[in-house]
What does this fold into?
Amino acid sequence: MSKLLYIEASPRKDRSASIEVAQSFVSAFQDADANNLVETLDLWNVVLPEFHGARINAKYRVLHGENPSTEEAIAWEEISSMVTHFKEADSYLFSLPMWNFSIPYKLKHYIDLICQPGLTWSFSPETGYQGLVTGKSATLILARGGEYSSSAEAGAMDFQKTYMEMILGFIGFQEINTILVEPTLTDPEPKEKTVASAKETAINIARQS
Ligand SMILES: Cc1cc2nc3c(=O)[nH]c(=O)nc-3n(C[C@H](O)[C@H](O)[C@H](O)COP(=O)(O)O)c2cc1C
It folds into this structure.
């Protein structure tokens, strides 16, 4: 038995290439073991709390080993329970579109909430930065209108893949599988082939998860 947290970041639902591929992953994961659990976090269907001043003050209190005020402690509690929820899974699936060469703002908002000192990463002058989400795997399904893997010049504009891989590595993930779905802004036939090939890769990874 294993628990997958599926984080969905496209608002396009039945028109989304990243979600279509993710659905193949989820089905294969469920078929692999009847006891496997999947929780879907649709970032377009939840109200994410603001990461406002009191929470930022609390973050710096944690970072500097200081006691928070009552207001800061309350503000931090909501963050802390979100991170506890995030860390409960055994493996992770993220499906997301490229937006303006990077990731959709809803996913960035979620990442800004869960990337916290003492919860998902730590720092000490002796050991430097250390990720605290360890021993877990993540799969990224990255849909993009253009093609960024075809040349170094195009790849230099791809802040979707580089950011997601970097931030997950920063919080401790060592096993990250990345599936590119590109280009999606093309004729129906090549797009279908691209999506079909990504689905095949997704199914193979899910069976091993
Ligand atoms: C707001 C917005 C910004 C986008 N920016 C880019 C971009 O910078 N580069 C690109 O190749 N495609 C871009 N696209 C196209 C999407 O990445 C592409 O349609 C992708 O398939 C969307 O994923 P989805 O089908 O899972 O929603 C953008 C689309 C939208 C709606």
User: Anything to note?
Assistant: Residues 188-208 form the longest helix (21 residues). The chain has a mean pLDDT of 97. Residues 3-208 form a domain with the Rossmann fold fold (CATH 3.40.50.360).
